[in-house]
Amino acid sequence: MQIYDINDATVLLPRLVDQAAKGESFVIAKAGKPVVKVVALNTPEPSQGKRFGFMAGQISVPDDFDVMGSAAIEKLFSGGP
Q1: Is residue 11 a part of any domain in this protein?
Q2: How many structural domains comprise the chain?
Q3: Residue 7: domain span
Q4: What is the pLDDT of residue 46?
Q5: Is 69 a member of any domain?
């Protein structure tokens, strides 16, 4: 990703806007410190990556899930064979 000083970005703004519209984001820095990231409006938001509940309705949890294998676990803790 390219980084442009604010003074350079001012001069190159029309070209940089066209570049961003094509999907090539860039950063504008002020006094050497990155300040702004410019991206196209149709770029997906970072929060759209992973989401909870994306497999809703595709998996099921058995009713006895909390007690599954409890006999084997009890045997392990009680020192049984």
Answers
A1: yes
A2: 1
A3: 1-40
A4: 66
A5: no
Is 55 part of any domain?
no
Q: Mean pLDDT, 10 residues at a time, over the chain (81 residues)?
A: 92 92 92 92 69 81 88 84 62
Is 27 in contact with 34 (CB distance < 8 Å)?
A: yes
Whether the Cβ atoms of residue 59 and residue 35 lie closer than 8 Å to each other: no
Residue 30 sits in a domain of what CATH number?
3.40.1620.10
- Is this prediction's pTM over 0.90? no
In a domain, 29, yes or no: yes
Q: How far apart, in whole angstroms, are the C-alpha atoms of residue 31 and residue 35?
A: 9
Q: What is the 3-state secondary structure (H, E, C) of the chain?
A: CEEEEHHHHHHHHHHHHHHHHCCCCEEEEECCEEEEEECCCCCCCHHHCCCCCCCCCCCCCCCCHHHCCHHHHHHHHHCCC
